């Protein structure tokens, strides 16, 4: 199927509605049947399967596991803990808040860069129109119109070539992002270097730590053991760079290390973060202390996302301005060249 995993917006809506239904005392099977009436075809099939298995007495987390990777690992693990502790309703509400925060951050970022992207597309559209006109119009003296853009592109064919270049650049950008997300050739090992980029690096690290700390807080509060809690939190970063630290964390905890000691042994977290975890541990239970830390990093993540959106918006603006300046200069040079030719003695 095209959607191999449940979309973030769908997970957020499902957990919120499911928790509300449980709070109202509704039957789990009835809730699942109702949820199966919306969403993608893959989602409807998965939820119908859950309802079928739940009606046969199967636990919800076990049914989710049989659906493969469609349901996020965090949702599966937290559902298992919620069912075993009798706190499934509270678990669903906690998950809903977590996923809604992630969704809000994503939407804020998209909203911030939408206008600059539309303006960039409009600018490229104007250039495409000019290229098309250069191939359609014919000067009074015959021949072709002067190549004022200096690209050697004219007419419909020139427009296609122009957009071919643009699509090639976009393919390179998105291909690089895809390769990074899939850790092709171990490229995620360069994450420490990425974090050193002024403005962008610290913001990305803050967002990652916010996701990690929130997942860790949810897992500990639900009653998961520290090893599994940290493993889920590492997985929530969607980065093999962090996931690779799972073995070191487990070894440290089984060796008697505290939570902060285990994170320090992971060697992927900044000293400031592990120090804050250590202070939080001294101020209360693991679940309570990490929850407070997660709240702090949630606020930091919002600021970081605004910073990244600002950088992305600025980059789009700068690209648009540079492109337009380049073609304006080329146009002026072409016009000045025509004037020079006109002033030459016959």
UniProtKB/TrEMBL annotation:
<dbReference type="InterPro" id="IPR042094">
    <property type="entry name" value="T2SS_GspF_sf"/>
</dbReference>
<keyword id="KW-1003">Cell membrane</keyword>
<protein>
    <submittedName>
        <fullName>Type II secretion system protein F</fullName>
    </submittedName>
</protein>
<feature type="domain" description="Type II secretion system protein GspF">
    <location>
        <begin position="14"/>
        <end position="134"/>
    </location>
</feature>
<feature type="transmembrane region" description="Helical">
    <location>
        <begin position="160"/>
        <end position="180"/>
    </location>
</feature>
<keyword id="KW-1133">Transmembrane helix</keyword>
<feature type="transmembrane region" description="Helical">
    <location>
        <begin position="307"/>
        <end position="329"/>
    </location>
</feature>
<feature type="domain" description="Type II secretion system protein GspF">
    <location>
        <begin position="212"/>
        <end position="329"/>
    </location>
</feature>
<dbReference type="InterPro" id="IPR003004">
    <property type="entry name" value="GspF/PilC"/>
</dbReference>
<keyword id="KW-0472">Membrane</keyword>
<dbReference type="InterPro" id="IPR018076">
    <property type="entry name" value="T2SS_GspF_dom"/>
</dbReference>
<keyword id="KW-0812">Transmembrane</keyword>
<comment type="similarity">
    <text>Belongs to the GSP F family.</text>
</comment>
<feature type="transmembrane region" description="Helical">
    <location>
        <begin position="115"/>
        <end position="140"/>
    </location>
</feature>
<dbReference type="Pfam" id="PF00482">
    <property type="entry name" value="T2SSF"/>
</dbReference>
<dbReference type="GO" id="GO:0005886">
    <property type="term" value="C:plasma membrane"/>
</dbReference>
